[in-house]
Design brief:
The complex is a heterodimer of chains A (596) and B (587).
Chain A lengths: L24 H6 L30 H11 L3 H15 L1 H10 L5 E8 L4 H16 L7 E7 L5 H9 L12 H10 L1 E5 L5 H15 L3 E8 L6 H11 L7 E6 L6 H14 L5 E4 L6 H12 L12 E9 L9 H25 L8 H14 L8 E7 L1 E3 L2 E3 L17 E6 L11 E6 L6 E8 L21 E7 L3 E9 L7 E9 H4 L7 H11 L8 H20 L5 E4 L7 H8 L14
Parallel strand pairs in A: 1-2, 1-4, 2-3, 4-5, 5-6, 7-12, 8-17
Antiparallel strand pairs in A: 7-13, 8-11, 9-10, 11-12, 13-14, 14-15, 15-16
Helix pairs in contact in A: 2-10, 5-15, 8-9, 9-10, 10-16, 12-13, 12-16, 13-16
Chain B lengths: L10 H6 L25 H5 L19 H6 L20 H6 E8 L4 H16 L7 E7 L5 H9 L12 H10 L1 E5 L5 H15 L3 E8 L6 H11 L7 E5 L7 H14 L5 E3 L7 H12 L12 E9 L8 H26 L8 H13 L9 E7 L1 E3 L2 E3 L17 E6 L11 E6 L6 E8 L21 E7 L3 E9 L7 E9 H4 L7 H11 L8 H20 L5 E4 L7 H8 L13
The chains are: A alpha/beta (596), B alpha/beta (587).
């Protein structure tokens, strides 16, 4: 079973030039990433964008403001248009498109903006093909690539075809399907800030739509500094006249509360909330999806899901490689923004939320926001940061972060961070939620660990000696690699003595489910087409998330806090242990009996 | 595996039954069922998986215990035992001055050969026995020490995981084995045994363990002789007895009364093999050493509990003993009920035997006696499959052709206490079913207000969690949970959180007899049944058993090798339960 093969790379923002980046780690080594074509094998890992080169683009303050302010005069007109547009595109249309209208009369046009970029080639087109192959796309659909490069439709098809693969579990007529799919792919060359070019695109789209009710999805696979331009042009010149228009954007969504709010404000000049689909890949991961299923469809977990039984929760993310020459983008963000503030915090919110009224997106997102708003902003003393230094092992020398020539020599950007967060509500008061994320560590892993309290008045206490920490139950949800769920329980070692031991009650996905697990992008694209917003981040969620992290980020920068150095390939700075110890926690992933 | 020493009881009929070859208890029976035909039991040698079995085939018929008791005075020649005497607690220095003598009464029988001596050897091999020990075989057959050793040596095996110096160890072990021939009711012969034991004990402080591997009708005689003439003067004397402990409240009470004429409660070790099983031992560990289970362990979360025992073979020509008892006495009233009590008890004050047994008795005493309407009985009939004909129970030549003895039973029991009020505890036991299995299934309630309801359609029964402890074969623990099927849809499915012992613990799991013998030597009574427990257990089943017999209720016939009578489903349905082992997604 192939792991989630794709998802990983956060590179979403990595657009065209981003080249290698976003991909899986292996590709770094191979530099050509052949594995992409064999997604089944590709255990890709979540990658922090480290590599992504996406340099500077960023939305630094400047960027955003500049974009925004120019809107000035045109604003009125645009506003008007926006209003019109949002009317058409709002829910009513959803419903029409979805339910009322005969399928034959509606069509979906998917425009991949930044089509020549790596992310588009490696993840988006393959995910679209997979959806087509599985019959998940509507009968009428068209796919447009849009980018600045000059290309013909045939050239695009040629490019796309190199990265398409078929599911291992049913390859039968894959060749044919691929041909049919490619026939639906077209290309339009244009500038990202040219309304004229988007108007030309609009014309072409209309041709393909043939008068049907048209729904349009724009996937912005471009750097964030040009988000706004592209959104403005698309919305003013290429919105659907009679169906919905939706835009998918990827992180980073700003770098602190202010820049994020500015970006949101700018997007909202052209789009309504319903039209914005902010992707967090992590939320498309199979085991993250399963988190709610576990909690809410099993009787046995929910009674335990509170401070009464849970001692602490750990959200752990590690990569076993560094920036590897592509630290330019990463250096501007650092691990906290890159992984914690979005991926890990989103999972935390899903984990800790109250039972929603229903599984509808708004109900779930309402509960998530409540969790985020119940949390204390992170304090400096509850954070440990680290940066990897070079290390020689077995004759190989691994470079330090600052040896990367795309990184300033005196960079203080953390490549590792650990933090303790608290949710001040009735369910979780006093329970530490520990996060840990790092690059260039000894393994790659993403997992959620729930450590339960001690058994009160444990009859078997004496069998364990005094190390009570070893005796607590632990639920582990391993998101990658090798998806698995297991519950560590105490068990009698078979034999004549009465020795207890921790064993696992296990569910190993590879053994249980032989089917390939779909890539997170497939799920997210499909959800966006269907208007299912459960896995996308709403503006108020984003605000709440930033407000937890912004003060500590500002303080780190202002005080120029020096990260603790740790050797490349090690288990990270020891400071993480002291942080955990302060809250009477042990990291579950670094124990003696390290989970397998 | 149960080796069954069977019992006694039905006084009247018993004496008339002839015992085939003197207590050669269950011949092939201990071994593999598959080998009925061959009569040779090669599997015993490999000791890998002994199965718990019903006592079919038990040759020993019951004999009344009355005779013996009448004449015997209440002499109590035995020192009441002191807890401090556990040899295990004794320091090395003291150990050198004390010695342990184990006398296997009925040494030439099958149970002794196949289970007891091998278990003793395994304990020796693993260094669990004290430094000074001797083993005596006692039976009527004339044998020399050498002949006994020869006989025993054929059934000894070494643990698979360390065969290193097995041969040596075996020789050393055999050197400690001796034989004494005598009648079971002769005080004189036991006095001779006592002399021999004393010789071996050489003045050390002596502890003596008697294992009664004999038919229950002579229990009392042996106990009388042993206690009067062969008790230890300075150490403890303990006696291990096996089921059946009577066949109803009265006969059981009578047996207990007779035993107590010669033994104190602390000296009586009533074995229930099931309690020595690894997963049964683990049941308390799971509950009490994990935080995640105990909060769920009540009527708030548990919908029902099922205790299931099945064998895939019938009496196969050895139904004589079984026919007098039936499946309810043979399996339910003891094995399954014991497990139920362990499962349902409140948290004991400590893990000490008396604390645990106190809690078990409380459970048993909180239960309603079983009513006829909550029981289904069945009997297997002949069946043709694939050109083979499988015999009906009454085709067995040792079974009366009009027998209505149940070979299958299902029952619903209730515990009327605060924790379990209204939760059905279902039991099911049967012979000649489609497979062999012993397991405990805990079905949890539905998720209240389940958000995912629509993903399951209407069959909510499929959506509940279930904890399964599989005692045999292939020991395992698994928890059925609902999980998202990986993929783009949102389909839910039951998956298992699994612990398969074979994969996790490659070492051989010790036989239940080893643990029980070791515990008896150590004076650990946790796994043995106390007299008041036994009384309470019988009082739940006796009224029902009498009613079945008085009304001559005919069992529902089911084909050999089938899933048992459908009545079991209707019984379960009455309490809104589905049998976990017969569902579609059963593993």
């Amino acid at each position: 079973m192939a792991a989630f093969s794709s998802m990983h790379c956060s590179p979403s923002y990595s657009f065209s030039y981003s080249s290698i980046n976003g991909c899986k780690k292996q590709s770094f080594i191979l530099s050509a990433s052949p594995r992409f074509s064999v997604p089944d094998k590709a255990k890709v890992f979540f990658q922090s964008p480290g590599n992504s080169h996406q340099n500077g683009v960023l939305m630094q303050d400047g960027a955003v403001t500049t974009k925004v302010s120019p809107v000035g005069k045109e604003a009125n007109i645009e506003k008007l248009e926006r209003d019109l547009m949002s009317v058409t595109s709002s829910k009513e249309w959803d419903e029409k498109a979805g339910f009322d209208i005969n399928e034959n009369e509606s069509t979906v046009s998917i425009t991949v903006v930044g089509a020549s970029g790596d992310l588009a080639k490696k993840k988006i087109f393959p995910a679209l093909f997979a959806l087509y192959y599985e019959g998940c796309l509507p009968k009428h659909f068209t796919i447009y690539g849009y980018a600045r490069s000059k290309m013909t439709d045939a050239e695009l098809r040629n490019m796309v075809s190199k990265t398409l693969t078929c599911r291992i579990d049913k390859r039968e007529n894959c060749g044919e399907k691929m041909d049919e799919f490619l026939k639906r792919c077209f290309y339009h060359s244009g500038q990202y800030d040219s309304e004229e070019n988007f108007a030309q695109l609009n014309k072409k789209l209309k041709e393909h739509e043939g008068g049907r009710l048209s729904n349009r999805l724009f996937y912005l696979s471009i750097p964030p500094n040009i988000f706004i331009n592209a959104v403005k042009c698309a919305s003013t010149s290429a919105s659907s006249g009679n169906g919905w228009t939706r835009v998918i954007v990827e992180k980073p969504f700003g770098r602190d509360s202010e820049s994020s709010a500015a970006l949101t404000k700018a997007l909202k000049q052209y789009l309504s909330e319903d039209q914005i689909f902010r992707i967090d890949h992590y939320l498309g991961k199979e085991l993250v999806e399963n988190l709610s299923v576990l909690r809410f469809s099993n009787l046995i977990f929910e009674p335990l899901w509170s401070r009464q039984y849970i001692r602490n929760v750990q959200l752990i993310f590690s990569e076993d490689f560094g920036t590897e020459g592509r630290g330019g983008y990463f250096d501007h963000y650092g691990i906290i923004r890159d992984i914690m503030q979005n991926h890990l915090l989103q999972i935390l919110a899903l984990f800790a939320m109250e039972t929603p009224v229903s599984l509808d997106a708004e109900d779930i997102r309402n509960e998530k926001v409540k969790v985020l708003r119940s949390m204390r902003p992170l304090r400096l003393e509850d954070v440990v940061i680290g940066q990897y230094k070079s290390h020689s092992k077995g004759g190989v020398t691994y470079p330090a972060y600052t040896d990367d020539n795309t990184v300033p020599k005196d960079s203080l950007t953390p490549t590792f961070a650990a933090a303790a967060l608290f949710i001040d509500n009735a369910r979780w008061d006093g329970v530490p939620f520990l996060m840990k994320a790092g690059k260039a560590l000894h393994n790659k892993r993403a997992e959620i660990r729930v450590q339960f309290r001690h058994v009160p008045g444990n009859l078997y206490n004496r069998k364990f000696g005094t190390d009570l920490d070893q005796t607590t139950n632990e639920l582990v949800i391993r998101v990658q690699p090798d998806e698995a769920i297991y519950l560590k329980i105490n068990n009698k070692v078979p034999g004549l003595g009465m020795r207890l031991d921790r064993s696992n009650l296990n569910l190993h996905y590879a053994a249980r489910y032989s089917k390939e697990i779909p890539d997170a992008y497939e799920r997210l694209l499909l959800d966006a087409i269907e208007g299912e917003r459960r896995l996308f981040i709403r503006s108020d969620e984003l605000d709440a998330a930033w407000s937890l992290f912004t003060p500590v980020l500002a303080e780190l920068e202002e005080k120029k806090i020096i990260p603790e150095y740790y050797p490349y390939g090690s288990r990270g700075p020891v400071g993480a242990h002291y942080l955990a110890a302060r809250y009477n926690v042990r990291w579950g992933d670094l124990g003696v009996e390290q989970s397998v | 595996m149960a080796a069954p020493i069977t019992p006694c009881s039905s006084p009247s009929s018993s004496s008339s039954l002839a015992f085939p070859s003197e207590f050669n208890l269950c011949k092939p029976r201990n071994c593999c069922f598959s080998n009925w035909v061959s009569h040779v039991c090669p599997r015993i040698r490999t000791r890998t998986h002994f199965q718990i079995k019903t006592s079919n085939g038990h040759p020993l018929n019951a004999v009344s215990m009355q005779g013996g008791m009448d004449g015997s005075p209440l002499a109590k020649g035995i020192n009441p035992e002191k807890e401090e005497d556990f040899f295990i607690d004794i320091s090395d220095g003291e150990e050198a001055h004390s010695t342990l003598s184990i006398t296997v009464v009925g040494a030439s029988g099958d149970l002794a050969k196949k289970k007891i001596f091998p278990a003793l050897f395994a304990l020796y091999y693993e260094d669990w026995l004290p430094e000074n020990f001797v083993i005596f075989g006692y039976a009527r057959t004339k044998l020399t020490d050498e002949e006994l050793r020869n006989m025993i040596s054929r059934t000894l095996t070494c643990r698979i995981d360390k065969r290193a110096n097995c041969e040596d160890k075996m020789e050393q072990f055999l050197k400690r084995c001796f034989y004494h021939s005598g009648e079971y009711s002769s005080e004189e012969h036991f006095a001779e045994l006592d002399n021999k034991l004393k010789e071996k004990e050489a003045g050390k402080r002596s502890n003596r363990l008697f294992y009664l591997s004999i038919p229950p009708n002579i229990f009392v005689d042996v106990v009388r002789c042993a206690s009067r003439k062969a008790s230890s003067a300075k150490g403890w004397t303990r006696v291990i007895v096996e089921k059946p402990f009577g066949r109803d409240s009265e006969s059981s009470a009578e047996l207990t009364r007779c035993l107590k004429k010669y033994l104190t409660e602390e000296q009586i070790f009533r074995i229930d093999h099931y309690l020595g099983k690894e997963l049964v031992e683990n049941l308390s560990v799971l509950r009490f050493s994990n935080l995640v289970f105990e909060p769920l362990w009540s009527r708030n979360y548990i919908r029902n509990v099922q205790f299931i025992f099945s064998e895939d073979f019938g009496t196969e020509g050895r139904g004589g003993y079984f026919d007098n008892y039936g499946i309810i006495r043979d399996i339910m009233q003891n094995h399954l009920l014991q497990i139920l009590a362990l499962f349902a008890m409140e948290t004991p004050v400590s893990l000490d035997a008396e604390d645990i047994r106190n809690e078990k008795v409380k459970v048993l005493r909180s239960m309603k006696p079983l009513e006829l309407e909550d029981v289904i009985i069945g009997q297997y009939k002949g069946h043709n499959k694939g050109g083979r004909t499988y015999p009906g129970y009454t085709d067995d030549s040792t079974v009366p052709s009009n027998s209505i003895t149940p070979t299958f039973a299902a029952a619903a029991l209730f515990i009327n206490n605060a924790r379990w009020d209204g939760v059905p505890f279902l039991m099911k036991a049967g012979k000649a079913l489609h497979r062999k299995r012993a397991e405990i299934r805990v079905q949890f309630r539905h998720v209240p207000g389940n958000l995912y309801k629509r993903n399951f359609g209407t069959d909510l029964d499929k959506a509940t969690n279930e904890l399964v402890l599989r005692v045999q074969p292939d020991e395992a623990i698994y928890l059925k949970i609902n999980n998202k099927v990986p993929g783009l849809g949102m389909r839910l499915d039951r998956s298992d959180l699994n612990l398969l012992y074979r994969a996790r613990y490659p070492r051989e799991i010790p036989d239940a007899y080893e643990r029980l013998l070791l515990d008896a030597i150590a004076g650990e009574r946790r796994l043995f049944i106390r007299s008041d427990e036994l009384d309470a257990a019988w009082s739940l089943f006796t009224p029902l058993l009498k009613e079945l017999e008085a009304k001559k209720i005919s069992p529902e016939l089911y084909p050999y090798g089938s899933r048992g009578p459908v009545g079991a489903h209707y019984l379960a349905a009455k309490y809104n339960v589905r049998w976990g082992d017969l569902g579609g997604d059963d593993d």
